[in-house]
Design goal:
Blueprint: E1 7-13, H1 16-29, E2 42-48, E3 52-64, E4 67-68, E5 79-87, H2 92-95, H3 98-107, E6 112-118, H4 126-138, E7 142-145, H5 164-173, E8 181-182, H6 192-202, H7 206-218, H8 222-241, H9 249-259, H10 265-288, H11 294-311, H12 316-319
Parallel strand pairs: 1-3, 1-5, 5-6, 6-7
Antiparallel strand pairs: 2-3, 3-4, 3-8
Helix pairs in contact: 1-5, 10-11
InterPro entries: Alpha/Gamma-adaptin-bd_p34
Region (Disordered): 188-252
Biased composition (Low complexity): 216-227
Length: 320
């Protein structure tokens, strides 16, 4: 895929093996091959969603005593996301990196900021995990718990909130990368254009509908037509008198998607999942909003709005 320079993700940690474990999982979940024997510090990966593809690079850096063991290959401003990988079974994974990250955040702002805690089942203590989570709330990071058993990180439901490594990949998918290339319109939700195309087939022109109705009446006798009208009216009154069946949460969400002009069926399931992702992002912004500056809150809100815009299949031409 021909793109501009790949977007860059800064992957930090005090334990190189923990960083590579997370990187290999992201490759596996993305359907890409990962060479466990390779010790490359820069790992190219293509993120693929229903709506776009983006070439990214994972830049792995060890932090020892709150200092980088190797210098960054690019200016810090060129990194669009930060994944801080912490081995929860040791205090070192946090204390050896904490001051470096906090100092970096004073000068930099990332589109995606995640603290990925691995081996949470072997955590030093429950209070250690609580301290990690509290730090994330105070510093506008998202806290993601990852267990060693990859199966326990999977939700098993398409609309349920992702957990563990699946949540890490989901967060990356929800970002608007500088290198992203939107897929052709026929490969993405068609949005309002499909709705506009379908409308004439459903409603038609009022004059044509009236003409067709008059022609139908002329071909039948007046009395049967009156009886049919009466029966239809009674049936309609009976149906109106029936109490409406209670809607499930999924029914209401599907109705909302239909109102937006999004597709049903398998595509509708994908749309529901993507909308669920956006709802999760809004919830997280509200939870951490008090720790963010006005500019950061505005930037995150704009990013979510852009994703909703793309979900509805609207582009600049539609807006005009």
């Amino acid at each position: 895929m021909a793109t501009a320079d790949a977007s860059r993700i800064l992957v930090l940690g005090a334990d190189d093996s923990a960083q590579r474990h997370v990187a290999s999982a992201l490759f596996r979940l993305s359907g890409a091959k990962f060479d466990d024997a390779a010790r490359d510090a820069v790992l190219p990966l293509t993120l693929k969603t229903k709506y776009y593809e983006a070439d990214v690079e994972l830049h792995l850096h060890d932090v020892v005593g709150n200092e980088l063991s190797t210098a960054l290959l690019h200016d810090a401003e060129e990194y669009e996301a930060m994944l801080w990988v912490v081995d929860a079974s040791s205090h070192r994974g946090f204390v050896d990196v904490q001051r470096f990250v906090e100092k970096s955040m004073e000068e930099l702002s990332f589109d995606v900021s995640l603290l990925v805690a691995t081996r949470v089942e072997d955590a030093v203590s429950a209070s250690h995990l609580t301290a990690l989570e509290d730090w994330c709330h105070e510093n506008a990071f998202e806290f993601v718990r990852v267990q060693s058993d990859s199966e326990s990180n999977q939700t098993g439901e398409s609309f349920a909130e992702k957990q563990g490594l699946e949540r890490v990949l989901e967060a990356l998918h929800c970002n608007m990368w500088r290198s992203m290339v939107m897929l052709p319109r026929d490969a993405a939700p068609s949005g309002f254009k499909d709705q506009e195309t379908a409308s004439p087939q459903i409603a038609g022109h009022p004059e044509e509908n009236q003409h067709d109705g008059d022609a139908a009446v002329e071909t039948s006798s007046t009395e049967p037509a009156a009886e049919t009208t009466k029966d239809a009216k009674e049936t309609g009154e009976q149906q109106a008198a029936k109490p409406a069946a209670p809607e499930s949460h999924e029914d209401r969400l599907q109705a909302s998607l239909s109102a937006l002009g999004l597709r049903d069926g398998d595509d509708g399931d994908d749309d529901m999942e993507m909308l669920g992702n956006l709802i999760s992002q809004v919830r997280r912004i509200r939870e951490t909003g008090h720790t963010l500056s006005d500019e950061e809150r505005r930037r995150q809100a704009e990013r979510v709005a852009m994703q909703l815009w793309n979900l509805m299949g609207v582009d600049d031409d539609d807006e005009e």
